[in-house]
Design a protein that fits this description.
Layout: E1 2-6, E2 10-16, E3 22-29, E4 35-43, E5 56-63, E6 83-84, E7 90-95, E8 109-114, E9 123-132, E10 138-146, E11 151-164, E12 167-175, E13 188-194, E14 200-223
Antiparallel strand pairs: 1-2, 2-3, 3-4, 4-5, 6-9, 7-8, 8-14, 9-14, 10-13, 10-14, 11-12, 11-14
């Protein structure tokens, strides 16, 4: 038996067994095309009139796992699609090999470098373009870390610029605080949410300024959501890029 209760934006569905006990529940969007969360339960086996009948044995729940719209958010296989946009005295690059760079997972990531000659007007920037649908909220997130010798000055900041070509549509302050080595091994998660007014190709530009030294970005995720969800380690989970990141065998 399934009970359905539609709401303005969400739909909750509850599945009962033959004894009226809740077996599982799940929540979807209004047209049931997307599961947002689920839970399930099991019960002890009933025996006669035992007082233990119908007691919960196990319970589990899960939230929605985001589909990362980027082909390789960890940059462990490919770096194509990322373009440096840095001023003088600065550089930025996407790399699949770690070398002496700091990485949260795997070997790939983004490196942002500002030399000791960098002024307050200089910045290290790197961007990529993605196709977005009008009226849909998109959240871009990444993990940010810095090298031990980076000099974080007053006014230092990491920003995200959303651009249409070279025109900036919106600027987000991702952080103006140096990541603490005592929290998640020095990795600070940053995110911003943008809703485009029209269909098109948009540029997402990470821009670091006000400091000198090297910083890193890893586990970059673009998802169609109002906020960042847990980073999805499965690359190309929606198979939007064919079988990229997947090995085939006969």
């Amino acid at each position: 038996m399934t009970a359905k209760r539609p709401t303005a934006d969400l739909r909750a569905e509850i599945v009962f067994d033959n004894w009226g006990r809740t077996v599982c529940t799940y929540t979807t969007n209004s047209d049931s095309t997307e599961i947002l969360g689920s839970s399930a339960a099991s019960y002890v086996q009933n025996s006669g009139t035992s007082r233990k009948n119908n007691r919960t044995l196990t319970v589990g729940s899960s939230g929605m796992t985001a589909v990362n719209l980027l082909e390789d958010g960890g940059l462990d296989r490919i770096v194509s699609g990322w373009t440096s946009a840095s001023t003088a005295n600065c550089s930025a690059a996407a790399r699949t090999e770690a070398g002496d760079a700091n990485r949260r997972h795997g070997t790939g990531g983004l490196n942002l470098y500002l030399s000791s000659s960098a002024t307050s007007s200089n910045y290290a920037g790197i961007y990529r373009t993605e196709s977005l649908t009008a009226g849909k909220a998109y959240t871009l997130s990444a993990y940010f870390s810095v090298s031990s010798y980076l000099n974080w000055k007053d006014g230092a900041k990491l920003e995200l610029l959303v651009q249409n070509g070279s025109s900036t549509l919106q600027t987000f302050l991702l952080t103006d605080t140096k990541p603490s080595a005592d929290i998640e091994s020095g990795w600070q998660r940053v995110s911003a949410t943008y809703t485009p007014a029209s269909d098109g190709t948009y540029r997402f530009l990470f821009r670091l300024s006000g400091c000198t030294g090297t910083a890193y970005l890893d586990d970059v995720q673009l998802e169609q959501a109002d906020a960042a969800s847990t980073y999805n380690l499965i690359q190309n989970g929606s198979f939007e890029f064919g079988t990229a990141a997947w090995d085939t065998s006969n």
